[in-house]
Write a structure and sequence with these properties.
The protein contains seven helices and ten strands. Helix 2 packs across helix 5 and helix 4 packs antiparallel against helix 5. The chain is of the alpha+beta class. The strands form three sheets. Strands 1-2-3-6-10-7 form a six-stranded mixed beta sheet, sandwiched between helices. A two-stranded antiparallel ribbon has the order 4-5. The longest helix is centred in the middle third of the chain and has 31 residues. The chain has one domain: NADH Oxidase.
């Protein structure tokens, strides 16, 4: 089933959402933060490279996203995890403290396709590691923006049914085992949104995101509490801290 983002409803079947490149928010300051610089402090030389990569992004980015809704089995309660379709997902309290109040979860996937990844690999092969790394970083920002867009559209839609949503969480975040990708993908149609999974739980295309979003009347979407996370050197922390700043600025306007 394929629908426009504005037509999202709480469906029991898998739904593929139409997203165009114009729907994505590519924040160059956040890319600079992901490159390791303080906000607004990225050297102009690197920002010029970011500008060039972002200009090419529109022709190389092919965003796709989809989801499927499942009930949470609350008849079996464990402190660190949830049951979906008779399978147990072991998670840290940082996730379950939000998800446990949900009545349903949206299992989602999204991707920007393989072109940016292929470009980055070719640059590394040619010895241009700096540009290759910038291409990879811009690609990561683009796929997270794709996930943001889907997340926001689901939030807007469930409000029509007097429901709310939680933050989104993915295997590999907050000590949630990457191996649970296999459980999540077993809930979705094969090659859903053009994404497959290797035996080691790596998504193909690599620039893809999967995870869950809680849905219910007694949940809420909160700022990401990366400061309480125990995972050292988390690659996602700069990005989600930037999201918090963006939402705070939006709420203050």
């Amino acid at each position: 089933m394929s629908v426009s983002a504005s037509a999202i409803k709480i469906e029991k079947e898998a739904v593929e959402v139409k997203i165009s490149f114009e729907d994505l928010l590519i924040d160059k300051n956040e890319i600079g933060i992901s490159l390791g610089y303080s906000a607004g402090k990225t050297p102009s030389y690197f920002m010029n490279m970011v500008d060039d990569v972002v200009k090419k992004l529109s022709s190389l980015c092919q965003p796709k996203a989809g989801y499927k809704i499942f009930d949470i089995d609350k008849s079996i309660i464990k402190p660190y995890g949830i049951y979906i379709e008779n399978a147990f997902y072991k998670m840290e309290k940082i996730i379950t403290s939000q998800i446990k109040k949900s009545d349903k979860v949206a299992v989602f996937v999204c991707t920007i396709g393989p072109a940016m990844e292929m470009w980055s690999k070719e640059l590394f092969k040619q010895g241009d590691s700096i540009l290759g790394y910038i291409v990879d970083t811009v690609a990561s920002a683009a796929v997270e923006s794709t996930a943001d867009y889907l997340h926001n559209q689901i939030e807007n839609s469930v409000q029509e049914e007097e429901m709310k949503i939680t933050n989104r969480y993915s295997p590999g975040y907050c000590n949630w085992s990457v191996s649970d990708q296999h459980l999540l993908f077993s809930l979705l149609p094969k090659n859903f949104c053009g994404i497959s999974l290797t035996g080691s739980a790596l998504m193909m295309p690599v620039k893809s995101v999967s995870g869950i979003i809680g849905i219910g009347k007694n949940v809420k979407r909160m700022k990401y509490i990366c400061g309480k996370c125990t995972v050292p050197n988390c690659a996602y922390r700069p990005y989600y801290l930037a999201i918090n700043k963006r939402r705070l600025a939006k709420n203050n306007n």
